[in-house]
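User: Watch each token:
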Amino acid sequence: MRTFTIVAILIALMVTIYLINRGITSRMSKNENQSKITAIEKAKETERKINNLVDLFFLNIPNSL
């Protein structure tokens, strides 16, 4: 009976650790996805700024060239 109790406690601990790790991994995955979205948004903003600078540069070139 004592062995059964010890095994049951160990199984309960293993299940608890598994569930905690799965929750942490899930939260990390959500944070990574949010980071990727933020990086994409920043890249698009940077691309838009570069395009604006290129447009300004070409609009300011004199026609005599």
